[in-house]
Amino acid sequence: LNWTVSCSSENSFYLVVTIYQLEVVMSKVTKQAIEEQNTERVVDQDYPLEHVPKSARKSLLSISCVLVGFTFFTPTMASGASLGAAFKFDELILIITVGSIILGLYVASLCCIGARTGLTSVLQSKYTFGKAGAKWADIILGGTQVFWYAITGEYMGSLFAMALGLDTFGWKVFFILFWGVVMGITALYGVRAMAIVSYVAIPLMAVLMVIVMVMAIKQAGSMDAIRAIKPSSSMTVTSAITVIVGTFASGGTQAGNWARFAKTGKTAFIAGLFGFLIGNGVMIFSGMLGGLVFGTGDLIELMISMGIVFWALIILTLNIWTTNNATAYAFGMAGAELFHKNNKKPFIIGGILIALLMAILGISNYFIPMLNLLGTFVPPLGGAIIGDYFFVSKGRIPKLEYVTFKTWRVAPIIAYILGCAAAYFGGLFNFGMPALQGILVAMITMPIIHAIFVKCGLNDEHEVAENAEYI
pTM of the prediction? Predict the structure, then answer.
């Protein structure tokens, strides 16, 4: 813009000063806007309160590695060992296959929903249960992951202290704090950092499982000798399948947190099925071999007792790391939704601090009761979400910005309560497979109760704008 002003020198001076002041103000406003945009990009890099855009989607390999890394969890081997002591080899193969298929299909369905919607598990809960109902999902899903972080932290601290000959309370606390902080750092940097850790850890875990199989066959003498081993304890088939499904039913309910970055629902379904059918199944199988031959499923501890300390600690560290950073990420996402803050980092840090305190105080003493609670209250949550998305919403939901969410959606809450009751009483009276029936009852009753509400003229849906975009 070229222009000329004819005025006195005094007025020209004031005009120049005014223009200069205006430029300074505009510069500050522009700088502040840029800083806010940059801050927003940093805060939103994992999209805790919105749909993941197509531009942020990742490959099948990346998502699969995160999910497989999540399921490659050494304590899972202990579950396999408990099965190994109760059944013959051929029976175990069938039980592990059936249990892994059930778990894999459940998790894969939730992964598919996550990728289609681009939403975290807790935001999916907001569509299903309403604003207030989603807060329960935040608490129970976030709380379970804080609990798991504490369990793995205590496990890690104990094994490191024992392996290095520093088996005192002080050193145990040191290792709990050290690894608890280090492993939480990758969760702060999101899915990309978690995938990098998984790329390193998965091959080493695969090596561990091959070592276990070779050691077991060598110890037994042959595969025929393993197949001939007689059970030393008893367990029903339904209980055995429950162990397999229940081991990761709670964590699997939140698999959508990572699968939402998949490019398509089909990609996410395949990644979820691969991670929880193959990944978890192989871990159970390795632990089962250890239980059959060595009488223990904790192969890390077995390796340490055999003097293979260095590799045992390397494999232990990477193994727990892939699970713990996913765990911390999950409770960070739950906290962000609970307090409606578009930043997961404060909640990851806060959750880690709580988990470390629990680990130091000995949370593992309450492991079995907590596991039973998780198997009762978490899987029906996923069942209600699946039933609502596929059978009520028909696989299409409006985008967040077009929805005025109800405080409560009563039909899904009733379905969820019925699912919890099915799981609880199944466990109480040793009937059926508690985790599985909790999922199925919630999933099946969800559309039925919704249809009854519609017949009775009861509005149980969120308010959606007329020009809404659906995904």
Answer: 0.84
